[in-house]
Amino acid sequence: MSSFAPTSDNASSMGASYEAFDVKDAEFFKGISKIPYKPDAGPTESLVFKHYNASEVVMEKTMEEWLRFSVCFWHTFRGTGADPFGFPTLVRPWDDGSNSMANAKRRLRAGFEFFTKLGVKYWTFHDRDIAPEGRDLAETNRNLDEIVDLAGQLQQETGVKLLWATCNLFAHPRYMNGASTNPDAHVFAYAAAQVKKGLDVALKLGAENFVFWGGREGFHSMLNTNVRSELDHMATFFRLAVAYKKKIGFKGVFLIEPKPKEPTKHQYDYDAMTVIAFLRTYGLEKEIKLNIEPNHTTLAGHSYEHDIVMSSAYNMLGSIDSNTGSPDLGWDTDQFPMDVKNATFVMQVVLRQGGLQPGGLNFDCKVRRESTALKDMFISHIGAMDTFARGLKVAANIFKDGAMSKHVEDRYQSYRSGIGAKIESGDTSLEELEAFALSQGEPERISGQQEHYETMLNFYV
Ligand code: XUL
Ligand code: CO
C-alpha cells in the first residue's frame, strides 16, 4: 500500500526481466525445491523442516490436520518492507511495482508456486491484495473477476485451498473515517457493495471462512463521534452480510478479528470479550465467531494466548492469525511466531476443543524489512511451522499425561459436592450462603501454586 513501491527503473537495474515470468511454467523461486522433512538436520539448515512432518499422526490426526497452515497474500506477496521512516527494501524479481493486471497475475502465480513448495494447503487474501482498484467500482469488480478466475485455476491445479477471504475496508482514502461506522451513509453503502462482491468471490473460490477486521471502525476523538450510532450501524452491516451469505448459499464461517488500536486510537473490536459482548448485544452470536491474532491480543495488554483461551471457552474460537509481536516494541510488528512455549499454549487450546477446522493457523506475518533475500520468505514460514509442530507435540504430551489438567481439576473440587455443587447449579441463595459462612467460619488458605504449574510446564517443553 506504499506510495514508494519500487519503480521499474530501480528493479530493472537489479537485472529483472518481468516478461520472463509471463511464460507458461515460469519458475519464480529458482534453486528452491519442495521443502523436505529432515529431522536430523543441523542448526544451520533452515530450508528444511526439522519438526513439521505433515503426515505424522499426533493424537489420532495428522500434523497437517491439526495445524492447517495458511500463507497470507498481503504481507508475503504485497509487502515491500516500507515503514514510516524508510522506502521499500524487498525487491521481488517478478514484481514491477505497478498496479497492472499483468503484475497482479505474476504475483499470484508466484504465490501458488510458493505455497506448493512450502507444502501449505491454504492461503488467505484481501480483495485488493490480489487485484487492483479500477477507476470506479464496476471496473474494480471486473479486475477482481479476472484475477479470481486465475486464482480458481491455480487452486485447481495445485490443490491449495482458500482458508479465508476478506475485504480491505481500511486502505483507500474513502474509508479514512471508517467503513460500516463511517458517519457518511454513502461510505457505508460503498463498503456494503464491496462486501457483497467479496462474498461472491469467497463462494466462487470455496473459502472456508470469511474475515472482518475493522481497521478503521473506531475513533480518534470522542468529540466528533456518536459511538452508539456507529456501533448500531456496524451491527446492521453484519446483519446485511449474514442475510446475503444465506441468500447466495455461502457456507463459510464469518469471523471478526479483534484489535484494540492501530490504525484508529480506539477500535470497537477491542479484544475477544468485547467482540463476544458486541455479538450478544446485537443477537449475532450464532452467526459470527472470532479470528484471534496474538499480536493484537498483546496490544490489548493481555498475554499471548489470552484471547485464544477466552474465545475457546465460549465456543467462539474460529481461526488464528498465528503471529507474534515484540513486547519490547509494543506495536503490531506481525513477526513470525518462533516461541515454542507460546505455540504450546495455543495448541493446548486447539487440542482441547478438538481442532480448529474449518479455521486454521494463518501466518499474518511479515519478514523484517532487513530480511531481503527471497529465501527468507521460506525460512520464516518454515521456522514458524516447526515452532507450531513442536508446540503441538508438547501440548499432546501434556494432554496425554493428564497431570496438569488433573491438578487444575482438583483445584475446583469444592464445587463437586455440598455447598459448592449448589453454587454450580445456581440452586442456592445469599441467605443459605450466609448461614454456611457463619457455621463454617474462616476458609482455609489454599496455595495457588503458580510456580508449581510453571515447573510442570517446563518439564514438557
Ligand atoms: C491487521 C490485520 C489484518 C487482518 C485482515 O492488523 O491483522 O491483516 O488479519 O484484514
Ligand atoms: Co490479522
TrEMBL record:
The keyword Isomerase applies. SUPFAM superfamilies: Xylose isomerase-like (SSF51658). Coiled coil: none annotated. PROSITE patterns: XYLOSE_ISOMERASE. InterPro entries: Xyl_isomerase-like_sf, Xylose_isom_bac, Xylose_isomerase. It catalyses: alpha-D-xylose = alpha-D-xylulofuranose. The keyword Metal-binding applies. It comes from the Eukaryota. This is Xylose isomerase. It comes from Elysia crispata.
